[in-house]
């Protein structure tokens, strides 16, 4: 007799795409606001982005219930850190915390595909990209979620290396200006929205820089 | 208060129906340096006197932020106060996590009081030797509570605890009726005046005191030294001559037996 399997799954897939790009003195984190299940849309106006600390912003796609649970855990842990150290967590510290938190549930994972963006202690943009169980790496840019397969090759083309002559291709913060990076992000999402059915409705962009945090919105195709 | 045969254990009643260990714990609070709290309809101000063991050392931390909407100032064994602050912070974080809303002050205070009560009814524990002035804001407005080692708690318009607190209480008793509708700045000013009363002639400067504020639209935070000194100068609060109020209050200082002396008599762990 074959093993009995569950007739339900603890997970669901809510779709959506997230992107982050690190600049010399800024970081751009963006996500669409569509939340789906199966072939249906649950809502066109759900934020996947959360500010965890002064200089750390996380965007997550996957199963939004797990994403929300993960966000709450990190928020609580950040409060504890602030009480103990009398200061905000740095972005690299938050990156490690996120990794540990994810691995903590290695055998019943958070179905969350995260991208953490912010400014490091020198004020330079930083982006960390994760898998569902906490494997992470600091990169110059990243994309996760249903549209990531469409966006990542485009970002590789635009951002991978300062010069095509420089080999091996180095992954560093982009020399692009803040507004150029924002335009690039908008282009990514407009393109992804065309072909990925789970990406669309509205684009939410968060920009972190020395002057603080800014939030921008842009309409996307709703079909 | 003098030693007798019923005071060794917190679990031993005296024939008069008293728990002496608990009362001795409240004595520890009176020995600590002063802490003051006042509230209006929209704000709570906590103030305390900074006393350090010697000129070479820094002063102990007596005001703790518990959450954005709650802060606490302590008098007595500061180590006990630190531990209780950690407990309060934890409770606030857990409540926020579960209910995604701030823990109402009254609930926190009850939990704290219940925790203190446990230590009055276990033979292997001792009561916490710290009094806490808990100031916070919730849906029902601004609140100031006093939690004592006995496990009792009371809500106040204004209160002072610690050494020479009677002088501050006398000042507060005169002025408390104006506090409810007081502006934030006037409330801070009253806190500074009350604090000055406890200094008994010593000059009030920002290095001697710590002030913290929480209010509508204002998260709990400790005012920095410059701001406090600016306020002291602005309100022209100087402590040269003791006012008549002090002279009548002086004999009432401290407990039944010998009045507690200044810092030299205080055990190193009590600030």
Automatic annotation (TrEMBL), chain A:
Q: Which Gene3D superfamilies match?
A: Glutamine Phosphoribosylpyrophosphate, subunit 1, domain 1
- Leader sequence range is none
Top-level taxon: Eukaryota
Q: Which UniProt keywords apply?
A: Cytoplasm, Nucleus, Proteasome
**CDD domains xref list:** proteasome_beta_type_1
Instruction: Specify whether Cytoplasm is a keyword of the entry.
Output: yes
Instruction: List the subcellular locations.
Output: Cytoplasm; Nucleus
A GO cellular component term found in this entry reads: nucleus
Nucleus is among the record's keywords = yes
Q: Cross-referenced PROSITE patterns, in alphabetical order?
A: PROTEASOME_BETA_1, PROTEASOME_BETA_2
Tell me the function of this protein: Non-catalytic component of the proteasome, a multicatalytic proteinase complex which is characterized by its ability to cleave peptides with Arg, Phe, Tyr, Leu, and Glu adjacent to the leaving group at neutral or slightly basic pH. The proteasome has an ATP-dependent proteolytic activity. Component of the proteasome, a multicatalytic proteinase complex which is characterized by its ability to cleave peptides with Arg, Phe, Tyr, Leu, and Glu adjacent to the leaving group at neutral or slightly basic pH. The proteasome has an ATP-dependent proteolytic activity.
Family as reported in the entry's similarity comment:
Belongs to the peptidase T1B family.
Quaternary structure and partners: Component of the proteasome complex.
Name of the featured protein: Proteasome subunit beta
Q: Which organism is it from?
A: Penstemon smallii
TrEMBL record, chain B:
Please give the name of this protein: Proteasome subunit alpha type
What are the UniProt keywords, alphabetically? Cytoplasm, Nucleus, Proteasome
Q: Does the keyword Transmembrane apply?
A: no
Localization recorded for this chain is: Cytoplasm; Nucleus
> Region Disordered: what ranges?
240-271
Q: Does the keyword Nucleus belong to this entry?
A: yes
By its UniProt entry, which SUPFAM superfamilies does this protein fall under? N-terminal nucleophile aminohydrolases (Ntn hydrolases)
Record's function text: The proteasome is a multicatalytic proteinase complex which is characterized by its ability to cleave peptides with Arg, Phe, Tyr, Leu, and Glu adjacent to the leaving group at neutral or slightly basic pH.
Q: Where is the Proteasome alpha-type subunits domain?
A: 6-28
What's the subunit arrangement here?
Answer: The 20S proteasome core is composed of 28 subunits that are arranged in four stacked rings, resulting in a barrel-shaped structure. The two end rings are each formed by seven alpha subunits, and the two central rings are each formed by seven beta subunits.
Q: Which GO terms describe its cellular component?
A: cytoplasm; nucleus; proteasome core complex, alpha-subunit complex
Q: Which CDD domains match?
A: proteasome_alpha_type_1 (cd03749)
Q: Which family does it belong to?
A: Belongs to the peptidase T1A family.
Question: What Pfam families does the database record attribute to this sequence?
Answer: Proteasome, Proteasome_A_N
Native source species: Penstemon smallii
């Amino acid at each position: 007799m074959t093993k009995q399997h569950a007739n339900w799954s603890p997970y669901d897939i809510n779709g959506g795409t997230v992107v982050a790009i690190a600049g010399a003195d800024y970081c751009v984190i963006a996500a669409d606001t569509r939340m789906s299940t199966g072939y249906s849309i649950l809502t066109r106006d759900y934020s996947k982005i959360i500010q965890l600390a002064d200089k750390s912003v996380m965007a997550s796609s996957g199963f939004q219930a797990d994403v929300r649970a993960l966000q709450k855990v990190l928020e609580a842990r950040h409060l504890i850190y602030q009480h103990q150290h009398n200061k905000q967590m740095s972005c690299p510290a938050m990156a490690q915390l996120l990794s540990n938190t994810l691995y903590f549930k290695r055998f019943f994972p958070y179905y969350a595909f995260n991208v953490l963006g912010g400014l490091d202690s020198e004020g330079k943009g930083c982006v960390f990209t994760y898998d569902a169980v906490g494997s992470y790496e600091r990169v110059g840019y990243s994309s996760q979620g249903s549209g990531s397969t469409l966006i990542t090759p485009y970002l590789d083309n635009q951002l991978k290396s300062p010069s095509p002559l420089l080999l091996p291709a180095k992954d560093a913060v982009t020399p692009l200006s803040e507004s150029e990076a924002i335009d690039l992000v908008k282009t990514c999402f407009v393109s992804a929205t065309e072909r990925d059915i789970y990406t669309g409705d509205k684009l939410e962009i968060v920009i972190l820089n020395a002057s603080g945090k800014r939030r921008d919105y842009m309409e996307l195709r709703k079909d | 208060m003098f030693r007798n045969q019923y005071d060794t254990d917190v679990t031993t009643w005296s024939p008069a129906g008293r728990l002496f260990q608990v009362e001795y714990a409240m004595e520890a609070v009176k020995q600590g340096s002063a802490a003051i709290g006042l509230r209006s309809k929209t704000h709570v101000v906590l103030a305390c006197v900074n006393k350090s063991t010697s000129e070479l050392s820094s002063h102990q931390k007596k005001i703790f932020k518990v959450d954005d909407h709650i802060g606490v100032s302590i008098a007595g064994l500061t180590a006990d106060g630190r531990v209780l602050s950690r407990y309060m912070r934890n409770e606030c974080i857990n409540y926020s996590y579960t209910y995604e809303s701030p823990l109402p002050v009254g609930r926190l205070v009850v939990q704290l009081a219940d925790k203190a009560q446990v230590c009055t009814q276990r033979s292997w524990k001792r009561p916490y030797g710290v009094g806490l002035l808990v100031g916070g804001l919730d849906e029902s407005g601004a609140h100031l509570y006093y939690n004592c080692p006995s496990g009792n708690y009371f809500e106040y318009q204004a209160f002072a605890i610690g050494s020479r607190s009677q002088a501050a209480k006398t000042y507060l008793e005169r002025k408390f009726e104006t506090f409810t509708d007081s502006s934030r700045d006037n409330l801070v000013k009253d806190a500074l005046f009350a604090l000055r009363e406890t200094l008994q002639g010593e000059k009030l400067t920002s290095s001697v005191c710590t002030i913290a504020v929480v209010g509508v639209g204002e998260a709990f935070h400790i005012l920095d030294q410059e701001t406090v000194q600016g306020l002291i100068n602005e309100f022209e609060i100087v402590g040269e001559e003791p006012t008549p109020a002090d002279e009548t209050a002086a004999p009432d200082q401290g407990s039944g037996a010998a009045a507690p002396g200044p810092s030299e008599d205080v055990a190193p762990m009590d600030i």
